[in-house]
Amino acid sequence: MVTSNDKVHIIDKDAKRRAMIAYGLSSNNYRAQIYENLEEVANFPPRDGFLLVNDEFAATELSYVSGIVAANLARVPMIVFGEDPSTNNVVKAMLAGAVDYLEWPFDQQRFEQSVARAESGASAQTRAVERRQNALARLEALTDREREVLRHLIQGHSSKDIGAILAISPRTVEVHRASLIAKLAARSTSDAIRIGIYGGLDD
Question: Residues 121-149: pLDDT tens digits?
């Protein structure tokens, strides 16, 4: 059964295998888009569906593909595949952000299960992107000092600790804390911390 994630972006250096995969997917009502190399992916970054990437690419290249997608704020999960997969290749794929690893030639039932997992991953990724965008928009209202205070709150520092670190009084820290909570429209300090983490202030 074809899901809403029915567009497949095939990235494979092997022309014959690319063609075989594209033909097989088209026969099952998937829409296949093929790429020979990473330059083509960078020039025409996928924005929907899911990626089907051969594991002949190095770990850094797989991560590069994920980065291209993320840079375009797209929600395109990645499935990696290969012939006679090794444990190292599977681990490499997972570390690069793949939601699954398939053995080629594909087993149809296993492929459908992987697509379902990719679709579930895309939904989770969509929520994560929306949370981050919302948090970043809220954080824009903060001054540099308020951001500093929030960073230290995220690290678990008390007002007294933050005051010592920033060379200001604990009372001033409390003023900044109250201000940033109001600007973020947060319900509490813990809610402000959550927004800060979603916005990347814990990096």
Answer: 666 666 677 788 889 999 999 999 999 99
35 by DSSP, 3-state: which? strand
* pTM of the entire predicted model: 0.60
CATH entry, 141-198, from 1.25.40.10, 3.30.200.20, 1.10.10.10, 2.60.40.420? 1.10.10.10
Which tens digits make up the pLDDT trace of 85-131? 887 888 888 888 888 899 999 998 989 888 887 777 666 666 677 78
Under 8 Å between Cβ of 154 and 193 = yes
CA atoms within 13 A of residue 150's CA, in its CB half-sphere: 35
Decide if 12 contacts 54 (C-beta within 8 A). Answer: yes
Distance CA 66, CA 140 (A): 26
Amino acid at 114: S
Domain 7-134 in CATH 3.30.390.10? The answer is no
Q: b/e for 115-131, b at 16 or more Cβ within 10 A?
A: beebbebbeebeeeeee
